[in-house]
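Propose amino acids for all 203 sites.
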């Protein structure tokens, strides 16, 4: 039995709408319902800590920074995303080796100690630092960069709570400006190319 042409059009329209919505949700940097913010209104200087002391974005002027927000109890998404960062850093032109800095920013400072963050980040690449701050500092920084995360209570779990967060890669130019926010579906090749472009635009 053939489908009515009108129904075909309605079905095609619904499918197209679903695809558009999926792409939108995959690429926004704020929760649904909140007004999107332009890159020019996001980013900027931050000061957190790593195992060796204070970390100030100003220290990394002249380098392209790739930053990922996550937490150590994130069993799958965070390690997978950090593997993408690691692979991307390995693909960046060797002449740019010292012009790239990576940050794994923990949004769960209550549980993620600096030693564990250091070991986790360094496992992926020696150019990646594990950093965090007080809950207030993390809240301020995530708002500053348009990062969404939420602590969600878990009943009947030893973890007590988990963290819902948007999985994205944030690219900061050598001038210290946020220039891109790339989806977790980004490939290492795409991420490496964006890092190189940020470096080369500074040369």
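Proposal:
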């Amino acid at each position: 039995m053939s489908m009515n042409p009108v129904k075909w059009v309605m079905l095609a329209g619904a499918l197209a709408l679903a695809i558009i919505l999926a792409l939108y949700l995959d690429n926004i940097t704020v929760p649904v319902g909140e007004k999107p913010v332009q890159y020019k209104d996001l980013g900027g200087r931050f000061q957190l800590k790593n195992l060796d002391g204070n970390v100030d974005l100003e220290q990394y002027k002249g380098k392209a920074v790739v930053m990922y927000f996550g937490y150590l109890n994130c069993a799958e998404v965070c390690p997978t995303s950090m593997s993408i960062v690691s692979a991307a850093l390995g693909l960046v032109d060797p002449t740019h080796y010292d012009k790239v800095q990576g940050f794994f920013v923990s949004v769960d400072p209550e549980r993620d100690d600096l030693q564990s963050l250091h070991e986790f980040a360094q496992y992926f690449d020696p150019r990646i630092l594990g950093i965090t701050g007080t809950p207030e500092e993390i809240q301020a920084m995530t708002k500053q960069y348009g990062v969404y995360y939420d602590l969600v209570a878990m009943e009947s779990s030893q973890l007590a709570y988990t963290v819902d967060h948007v999985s994205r890669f944030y690219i900061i130019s050598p001038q210290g400006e946020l220039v891109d926010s790339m989806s977790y579906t980004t490939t290492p090749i795409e991420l490496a190319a964006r890092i190189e472009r940020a470096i080369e635009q500074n040369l």
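Confidence is low (pLDDT under 50) at residues 16-35. The first strand starts at residue 47 and ends at 50.
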